[in-house]
Amino acid sequence: MPTVFSANRSSILVDGEAVEGLQSIAFRVVTEREDIRAIGSNERVDVIFGLRTVVGELVIRSSAEKLDALLDARGKFQLVANLKRTEGTDDTRTLSFDDCFVEGKSFQMDAHGSAATTYAFTATRLREE
């Protein structure tokens, strides 16, 4: 049975401080790679892997002053996401993003009057516990 996590029960911490209004978190791990080509062939014979980074986005209801300040200051921070299940057991997963920087933000308000800010961030590494 899959573990289903809920944004309503999950939380994020920025440098140990809770950030209220989490709507969603999305991230991907990006690894540079280069193909090694075979001479006289159109196939690769090997792959060389390089830099690995993490790229992500946080959607926060309204805005997060802490993240706004880090964007302005170009400050480094640690982001910890505590993911919790919707119902049932108290299964959790902790994701730690190290050496993060806020790269940008976008703001949106829909016809129902709900504002949300999307913060784009990068991290040096991701650790799952």
Features:
eight-stranded antiparallel sheet; 129 residues; mainly beta; globular; single chain
Report on this model:
This is Lipoprotein. It comes from Myxococcus landrumensis. The protein is mainly β. The protein has one helix and eight strands; from the N terminus they run E-E-E-E-H-E-E-E-E. The chain has one helix spanning 65-73, and strands at 5-14, 17-19, 22-37, 44-61, 77-85, 92-109, 115-123, 125-128. Strands 1, 2, 3, 4, 5, 6, 7 and 8 form an eight-stranded antiparallel beta sheet that branches. A hairpin with a 2-residue loop joins strand 1 and strand 2. The model has no long low-confidence stretch (mean pLDDT 91).
Summarize the structure.
The protein is mainly beta. The chain has one helix at 65-73, and strands at residues 5-14, 17-19, 22-37, 44-61, 77-85, 92-109, 115-123, 125-128. It comes from Myxococcus landrumensis.
Low-confidence stretches: none
* Overall pLDDT score: 91
Radius of gyration: 18 Å
Number of strands: 8
Largest sheet: 8 strands, antiparallel
Query: Please, how many helices?
Result: 1
Global structural class? mainly beta
Task: Compute the separation of the termini in Å.
Answer: 20 Å
The helix content is under 10%
In terms of quaternary structure, the protein is single chain
